[in-house]
């Protein structure tokens, strides 16, 4: 038995490894990083548990305590560690030379040194501070860890004893126990614990955190950081935590009062600046409440001389920025900076050329709310009681307001940069549709060639029938939906390119081309013409009757060739996304729920919704999701009905069969 072994003092320099040590085959356990905490502890406290040693060739082999031996060697090598040299002696237990249980002794010591229970560790740290008077800094030095890590453990050790006892008895989980550390006050912790366990129900960490939020606001929360200076100036009580960011502003009523004052001041400042009739504050943005409000919008005006001069300057700068953005060598960050500048200038130009009417200002107002960690101003709102009955009836009949997604939301105004990119995406989709309708596209190409020459005036400028591929610019080409690209690639793979042998002369290539079947020629011409489609939106019969009717024939619904995705939704304001969900897709309840979430979460929801419409959607909602796109992208006069993948495939096979 180890307690009967002889106690001896051995110089550190006389210690060596023992072949019977069960950890000798795991050298990684002795690496500097692996024993850093142990080295720090021995440096402060010395060897607490003696090593088991046995004489080997004039040395003392460490049978059990190899990591302590390695830590001692680290301290000897560290010239800054005082009191540790090769001559320094430490207490050991000597195992006799004739002992035949050396491996068993080594194994017994190693397997009985199980790690401390987590709660024991938390409480041990707390006792070192409360009883021994140590600071987090000295504890960190003792165990070779960071002060932040020590404070984290200390916080759990300072949770109310009854809650720690419940975790030790496994009445609650360790994670649930840790959740109580969100509030530094043990009295508050116990009150919440007793309230949550009064009916013997299962308590979850999430439930604990939600309950503690009603008892104060952490200084690290966005609201806590926003009001803290005023809160402290008014003497509001703060429950201090070992980690400053977890300290809690305990007076919820005072926090709310300060929030209302700050929001009201922001709303009043905007009201005075713009001339609205009233201003209010809304601490927490409530989509359902905001949906009750009407809204007035600024109309076009002629700017004064100074304003017009600024508009002209903005126009000139925008043209310059657009040219800079066409530089393909631009790094992504540089491009995005230009993009943001374009959006800011376009917004400034709109403000100079738009204004509210006197009547709108007389009934409109401003609400300041706290949203996503900042003050958000909602301009031009009309109180429910001030909405004209005629307007209410008209909007109700048209379905554009009065539901969860309709009111209190900025109108969706597409910036010029996004508009140009959407034109590019539509041109790509139209090109894909043209490759799927080779005979119609062949007729279009031949008709344009003939009329351009014989008619003296082009029948349409929508396609360039010349020996050049149209260059298409787009801010996020690698992020757009790839449906149209895949369809064009499939059309290319189906082309008969046997005639395009570079080893042949142009005359021989032409002879082989002429020998192709008419259907194969149609496919080639259609593919080539599709590559010349210009950036475009849906055309009207008045502006281009030829392409208007042609697009209805080959692409009645853009959604057969293009699907909205996260790249598009990321470029929308949060309010626009909620408006689309609530108004245009009929997902009013979802819009209300998502209103309290971040824009990133809403974008992810929309991306999943359009990638594969949810099975829980009603028939009407499913149809709306299947057909939705920015309105100017849909073919004017088209059916707007989605064509599913099987229908597109069947349509493609039919067209190709006809062409063949």
From TrEMBL:
GO terms for biological process: chromosome segregation. Pfam families: ParB_N. Residues 8-111 form the ParB-like N-terminal domain. GO terms for cellular component: chromosome. Signal peptide: none annotated. Residues 390-401 have a biased composition (Low complexity). This is Chromosome partitioning protein, ParB family. Residues 385-406 are annotated as: Disordered. It comes from Thalassovita taeanensis. Keywords: Coiled coil. Residues 304-362 form a coiled coil.
